[in-house]
Every structure is written in structure tokens, then in C-alpha cells.
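Section 3.1 - Work completed
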Amino acid sequence: METRRLQYFVEICKAGSLTRAAARLGMSQASLSQQLAILEVELKARLFNRTRTGVRPTAAGEAMLREAQIILRQVEQARTAVRAQSDILSGNVAIGFTAGTAGLFGVPLLTLARQRFPQVRLLILEGMTGELTERVIAGQLDLAALLRDETRAGVTSTPMYKEDLHLISPSSFELPAAMRLAEIGTLHLLLPSPRQTLRTLYDAAFRQAAKTPNIVAEIDSVALMHAAVVAGVGATINPLSSWREELQAGVVRASRIVDFPLALNFWLTRSPPPYSPAANAIFDTLQEIIVDNKPVE
């Protein structure tokens, strides 16, 4: 049983509502509900009854609240004692994010790292998987969120999450919410070059659909890809998390691919050891953040 789930449980009890608790914790209600469900499975007990105004602890929940508060207090006392005897972590930790993962995890990581490790400086690079992979293997990045498993001599990859891919098009195209791959292939497409993981996935799907896509440009720059789509040059295929701001602003649209569903597996990858204490601490912190902020499948 993880202490963070106990913290979530206590916060729900205090707030009396999943919505209010999620807002206080800085996470989505869907993620908080998922963590509560895991805790109830672990305890083999229902912890809350739903009411018209929120939630109320069951008898089991009341008992759990008393024990959880004691456990969390003891954990904090232990942390305080250890910190008092430990050297303060310091140093630089270099991290690479793809466009979507930077938007999801970058700010939460910066916030938590500043709170927990004020003497650790984060060096953050946003790029495409090919470039980030090369930097991880060369030891220029301590960690990177990648689109493929790069486990090899010294390099280790841990699964993060899986996300569906959508057609992302300028709003001016006025495309429907669901499209077939053959229809997508007729559009002016902006895709990454063949050396990128995403392109390999796209090419395989179009071959399976017996369709040659109308690729008007190959772009390996995240910033230029976004600017070109927003400007109406063409459409691309990406996870929604990479386009959250543009989708919210209404400058692009997302369409589901109905006949050949595409999805990406994201991996948290570490450079070859040895690892510094600061790098280990940031790795552990990032794993916590991924659980709380990853897109709900």
C-alpha cells in the first residue's frame, strides 16, 4: 500500500467530495477516482458512500481514516528524522520530454522538485524521440520520456502509459470527428521524417490500408509542426496530449481514426549508470507525477 494513496484518501475525507479533493491535490478527478479504486481493491472494502453533495466515509472508511492519519504522521516523522541526518541533495539533472509529455509532466515536476530538492537544478529539453534517444545513450540526458522501449546495454526503459493517436487538423479544414485512414491519406499531410518512431507507425498503417498518403512536408521540429498546422498548411497525426493548448483555443480539431486505430506507448528511459543521488530522487519523483497526471485511457 502506497502512502500517497493514504494521503489522497484523507484529503477526500476532509473535502467531502472527489471534485474538491482533486482540485486541492492538483490532479484530475478521473485520476483521483482511479487511485481510490485501487486502494479499495487493496483493502477489499468500500470506503465511501456517495451522497447528493459528495461522498461520506463508510464504517470501514471511518476506521481507515483513523489508521491512515496515524501512519502518515509516523511517515512524516521518519522523513524529518532522516532529512536531519542526510546531506542536502544538489547537482544538475537533465531531462528530455516529447511535446505531449512536457505539457503533462513538466510543470508538476518543476513544482515538486523545487519543494523537495531546492538545491537540485533541472535542465529540461523538449524534442522528438530520435534526438532524445541519442542524447540518453550518450549520457547527455539523465532521463527522457520516449515513444519506444530503448532498453539496451546500460539503458533502461519503464512503461509510462498508452495514448491513442488522432488526426490533428486546422479548424479551417472543418473535418468530421471520425475519419477513415483512406480519407486522411488524401489530405495535405505534415509528418515526421522516416527516422522518427511516429513515422514508422504511420507508414505501417497506410500500407495496411493500401493507401499512399499525400505527404506535403516532413517536419522533425515540434514547434514548426505546431505552427504549420495552426497556419493551415496541412494536418498531422499525434496524441491529443501534444495539442492540449491548441485544442482548448479552438485553432485545431481532432478526429478519431476509426478503421485503423493507432496508439503510442510512452516509456521513461534512464541513461547508463552510475546515477547521482539527485538523478535517483528526480526519477522517483517523476514516476509519482506520471501516475497522477497521465491521460486516462
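Second construct:
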Amino acid sequence: MDVLGDVLGVIGLKATAASVLTLTTDYEEERTASESVAYILLDGKCVIEFQGGTSLLPGDALLLGDTKHFVHRVNPESNDGKPVRLIQCVFRLERTLPHPLPKYFPARLNLEARYLTDETELGRTVDLLDGELINSLPGINYAGLRLAEIIFVEMLRRCSLERTQPRFLAGLTDSSILRTLLVMHREPAKSWQVAELAREAGLSRSAFSSRFHNLVGEPPLTYLRYWRLLKARLLLQEEAISVWEAARIAGYQSSSGFSRAFSRLFGGTPSTILKAKPNSPGHKTLKK
């Protein structure tokens, strides 16, 4: 079980663009969609202005959380007459979903060059993506976007090396809290109680509840309830299942109770999700 991968699937992380910027003058753009943008400086020096300025040296990386309605600029500095080269990757994810990862996503994550030159996947993936973009071989769009998504995940992993980690990601680096996240994700339909989860964590009930809330961003049972419904929503979108089957997987005893909880959280019924699926056959909402 991979908790982070599970969550990224539910919130719909997708890379939508990957390119190399070769700059000798200022570069400016304003995005109207809720997108995250990563910059990785390959050659030269620059300042990226986005809610303040961030200076980058070769090998430095910067992930901007949500660029919607913000103008951000890349200002290349002197490079002995040579252009400044950066990789730019653009990502989309469903930010309005009730999960602490998008809720507490950092506005700006700055990684120094040591994170790209160490023996981790981040530096190697950047090199692979740079090569793909330079060589432009058949399949570049598919391969390039997959490599960009690996870069996104690796940048989140590097958060574990920072003193200040955003909520939820902080929970993944705490062994006690991670154990409870693993069992909730593995068995979401189980009627978990706080006392049981505290035993999994090896903590007292009060210590566990406080620690979970502080590190994850939601009380344990609130997180579980949201996760069940988020997982059911994804299954309804992607799998050929009925509302009753989604309800059972989410731990509900009736499709009516599931539909009410689903509507309160997402503002629409499960049947609406089924009807919105392109080219999907008719689905029956079964009642127990």
C-alpha cells in the first residue's frame, strides 16, 4: 500500500506540459487555471518572482503551488553572454477536493541543488527529462509527461528533508501516524474506532488524536470519512460499478445513506457522477 500514490490518484495529479525555456530576457506569464508549475534551473542564474522573489542557482528547483491569477516572472541574470536554461513542468490536480494534501499544499517549495545532485531519483529524472526534451524522439509527449510526474512526486518526497513540512506530508514521515494511514487506506470500509487506531500507532488515545490532527490536518475519523467518499468517487468515475457497490466499498450499509453523505461532501449525488461518464452504459442504483 502506497498512501501518497493512493492520494495522488484520487486528486487527479496530471502533468500537462514539460518544456525547456532558453532565456536571454525576462519571461512572464499569467495562468488562468489552477495549475502548479515547477522550474528546475539547468544553466545560469535567475530570479523567479511569484509572491516574492526566489533566486535560483544551477540545479535548484522551485515548485509553485497554485499559479491561478498570479503573474510570475523569470528574470535571467548575467551568464557570460550565454542563455539561461530551465525545465518547466506544469501540473493539474483537483484542489477543491476535501483532502489535506491539496488543502495544505505549499504555495512555494524551494529545493537547493543538493537535492538534485544526491543519489536519489530526483536528479536522475531531471537528467532523463532534459535528454527527452533535447532529443525529441517519438513518444516524447508521453514519456516527458510521465517523467514530469515523477519529478513532482520526488519534490514532495524532498519535503521530508525540510524542517517545516506541510500537513499530511508531515504525517507520512511519522512512523506512528503512517501506520494508521496505511490501515485506513488498506481497509477503508472497516468500522475503525479511535482507540483501535491509537493501538496501531502505539500511542494513547489522546496523544494519537492530537498528533494525527497536527500532522495530517484532520481528526482521524474525519480523515477516514472523507477518504472513504473520495475513494468511492474515484471508483464511480473510473470503474463500471453501481452506487450500491461504491457504498459497500466505502463502508456504508445502504446506498441511500451513502448518497446523502456523498451529496453533503461533493454537492452532487453519486448518480450524477455515473451519468457524467463519457460513453458509459446505463447503471442501476441498487438498494439493499
